[in-house]
Design goal:
337 residues, 5-stranded antiparallel sheet
Length: 337
């Protein structure tokens, strides 16, 4: 009998705690239901179109260069030439790319030094004689991210976002602190670049600059004829700014990477589960330009007068191919790469 009051008190306290916990739980449940009700209300938010998957970008930028009937191209750690069915080795170099022909010299970038993990640490740009392959270093720099040759000058972008100019024949360099935030694009004498808040243009002859379009975080610039194509950090949809008319438009089903221009149209290589084809966008619709077959790797196209060159890799072939106007593909020469 002495314990009964104590037992009754313990039960009363337990019931009190129970009702407190139950009340809090019900309150939380009501809040959660209210939040869920609010979250399920329709919200008018724009959808962001995405870049079509499977678009091929060449791991070797500007792999091809042509002088007359001679085609030069990068293949692994080599630069080869092709003419009238004959393939010749011009030189060996560490991952050569950005090929340009200037008079009797081939200008290109190559890796100067590599780190412990074999990744490139420093690059150099060289001018190499196409007659004897002798090379002269035009610029030795840590990170040369982009190269372009116009007239008698070689233009390069550094990792600091600066533009460096060096005479193609060798000489002192000029530095233009442009504050570029992404790889630029050039069309003839016009260099287009972004500084993070706008797309600008620099005339490579007069060195004058002007703002083309106020646009935040523009990426993947591709200048072709009178158009500048780009995407942004917020959206991978391809945007097109017409420099002459000032009209800005969008192309939702066209990729913003791997683009090439030829005869007023855009081209890109599409990989559909291992089957490659070249596609064409004429400004209105996308169509297949030519079939390339089952491949492992494929370069971007190089348009010549009589057809298109590609550097491809498959189970049984690594090398240069040519596609004629009728879409017939011919393997030209096997090259390791």
């Amino acid at each position: 009998l002495g314990r009964e009051p104590f037992a009754v008190t313990e039960v009363s306290m337990s019931m009190k705690k129970f009702w407190i916990v139950l009340t809090v739980a019900l309150a939380m449940l009501l809040c959660a239901c209210d939040s869920q009700s609010q979250a399920t209300q329709p919200v008018d938010t724009p959808t962001i179109p995405q870049t079509p998957s499977g678009v091929v970008t060449d791991s070797v930028p500007r792999r091809f260069a042509q002088q007359g009937e001679i085609l030069y191209f990068s293949a692994g750690d080599s630069i080869l030439s092709y003419r009238d069915g004959a393939m010749e080795l011009l030189c060996t170099a560490d991952a050569p790319d950005y090929l340009f022909v200037s008079e009797s010299n081939l200008i290109h970038r190559e890796v100067q030094t590599r780190g412990d993990d074999n990744s490139p640490e420093q690059y150099k740009v060289v001018s190499r004689s196409v007659d004897n392959a002798e090379a002269e270093t035009l610029l030795f720099y840590g990170e040369i991210l982009w190269v372009y040759v116009y007239g008698e000058t070689v233009w390069m972008m550094t990792s600091a976002g600066d533009l460096v100019a060096v005479p193609a024949a060798g000489g002192e360099m000029q530095v233009f602190q442009l504050g570029m935030t992404d790889i630029p694009s050039a069309w003839e004498q016009k260099l287009y670049f972004t500084n993070g808040s706008a797309i600008l243009c620099m005339d490579l002859e007069t060195k004058q600059q002007h703002t083309v379009l106020e646009k935040n975080a523009a990426l993947n610039l591709f200048a072709y004829e009178k158009n500048i194509y780009f995407s942004t950090e917020e959206s991978s949809v391809l945007e097109n700014f017409d420099i002459e008319t000032g009209v800005l438009s969008q192309h939702e089903n066209v990729p913003c990477i791997g683009l090439n221009g030829h005869e007023g149209k855009l081209y890109y290589v599409q990989n559909s589960e291992g089957t490659f084809e070249l596609r064409c966008f004429d400004g209105t619709q996308i169509a297949a330009a030519c079939a390339l077959g089952a491949l492992q790797v494929c370069s971007e196209p190089y348009f010549a007068d009589s057809g298109i060159y590609f550097y491809i890799g498959s189970d049984d072939y690594y090398g240069l191919v040519f596609v004629d106007a009728q879409g017939r593909l011919t393997k030209l020469e096997t090259s390791e790469g």
